[in-house]
Amino acid sequence: MSKLVIVGTVAFDAIETPFGKTDKILGGAATFIGLAASQFDVDSAAVSIVGGDFPQEYLELLSNRNINIDGVEIVKEGKTFFWSGKYHNDMNTRDTLATELNVLADFNPDVPKAYRNADVVMLGNLHPMVQMSVLEQMESKPQLAILDTMNFWMDCALEDLHKVIAKIDVITINDEEARQLTGEYSLVVAARKIQELGPTYVVIKKGEHGALLFHENNMFYAPALPLEEVFDPTGAGDTFAGGFAGYLAKTEDYSFENMKNAVIYGSTLASFCVEKFGTERMQNLTSDEIDHRLKEFKQLTQFNIELS
Amino acid sequence: MSKLVIVGTVAFDAIETPFGKTDKILGGAATFIGLAASQFDVDSAAVSIVGGDFPQEYLELLSNRNINIDGVEIVKEGKTFFWSGKYHNDMNTRDTLATELNVLADFNPDVPKAYRNADVVMLGNLHPMVQMSVLEQMESKPQLAILDTMNFWMDCALEDLHKVIAKIDVITINDEEARQLTGEYSLVVAARKIQELGPTYVVIKKGEHGALLFHENNMFYAPALPLEEVFDPTGAGDTFAGGFAGYLAKTEDYSFENMKNAVIYGSTLASFCVEKFGTERMQNLTSDEIDHRLKEFKQLTQFNIELS
């Protein structure tokens, strides 16, 4: 069975949307990535940090999904990373109400020995030097290293970001961030410039407009499933990344053709994530539900023009 | 051979983009629709109005593409409709610099007798009562009536717009307009509400993000082909509509399954339109070029997940 290392935040989120608001609930990039990846038959390990205030039941929620949590450091006297945000009516924009780094400020990830030969490494959004540290701990070069990042690091740690981008195989990034990183408006041109920085594969996430996969001169486009209602977009990007990474780790096929399927799985899982607050929908998602939605994706995108 | 009636403006456009600017060049909804539809083996007629200032060579450009122009009224003492616009750097937004209605202010469309039994009627963006007048001139109910409209008519002629929407089979509308018409943010909900107004099929155009087709509980999504460079978006929506209408008229199959193909043809033709100023790219487009781009669309969207 393939091994997958997931590094990222395990956190508390408090979310307000036009549909309601939550108290502190389970959140964090590694949480969403892990829950999505756990839909696939892979041996995953989360590498993260939490405070003494983090409920045991949340940790069990992860380990019950066969996510190894030996690499989740618990700082008894510390507090868990906390993020709070409020979504606008269009659900595409949000205001950050609070960001309390807490224990994350001193996070030195420690990949468990048993996972230092992992096949796939998924670097969730964190300081680029923290991401780099995980890569450096790997005893053998992973088959695939995937990196997610955001504009914040382009603003305040661009040089470090360039260093880690040079080391990875796949980057997942949203459209505005791809434009910021390259200074190019066209996503086709931006993706080419990002490939020149290191990663052979570039995934550009466009939120409700889907995701684009670029590799050399090849492109693939997966729409987001149009939904009646987006309840809470928090974690959708991480869920996408988790589905993408989990599917590739399971199939052990890192070709462009198979990455198309991985993008579809990522989009499919993300379409569930947004249906409820936080991780709620992802906690009890069944494989039948996933199969049914994959069929909807197929109907949504497949057509039958015969070409000579 | 199927007959296709196209009503819309035949006009002068002056366009400014980050790549350059034009003098008065050939434009207008019926022009773009007609040029796109002329890629298919159909008997098309344009119904429009121009002034005495309109060059004979522009009319010949249409008739040379086998578009019947008996329904294009020439008002010798009048001036042709003129639109001028300037696109912003993102190419998704533009300022209208001038709109001179001229002869369009008194346009009473007159569908040539030979086309009053047309199979397909494509109502380009115009005052809803002008669109209605064309429908009323038809001697037999067309197999398919398609309507394009815009927010301007929602602002100033909503009641008339509702009347004509109730009479047609397919509406093409952009995402913001669909939201304005229904007061719903979710495009899935908006499309359902629009279907309740009359049209069985709803096409929502999302510009660089592609187009969605809705019919009962079915959805289909065609991306826009990601391009290195969008040179001039003018006419892309009309070109989409012309490809859509032309393909359906040629194939005489008005099912949802075939409309998927029509949406792909529309998107394909629109992807050429934006490569040059105005109608330039559409004037010399070959079927080989179209076939090649259809293959690119297939590669862009088709995947191979086996489902049980």
UniProtKB/TrEMBL annotation, chains A, B:
This is Sugar kinase. Pfam families: PfkB (PF00294). One of its GO terms (molecular function) is kinase activity. Residues 2-280 form the Carbohydrate kinase PfkB domain. GO terms for cellular component: cytosol. InterPro entries: Carboh/pur_kinase_PfkB_CS (IPR002173), PfkB_dom (IPR011611), Ribokinase-like (IPR029056). PANTHER family: RIBOKINASE (PTHR10584:SF166), SUGAR KINASE (PTHR10584). The lineage of its organism: Bacteria, Pseudomonadati, Bacteroidota, Flavobacteriia, Flavobacteriales. Keywords: Kinase, Transferase. It comes from Subsaximicrobium wynnwilliamsii. It comes from the Bacteria.
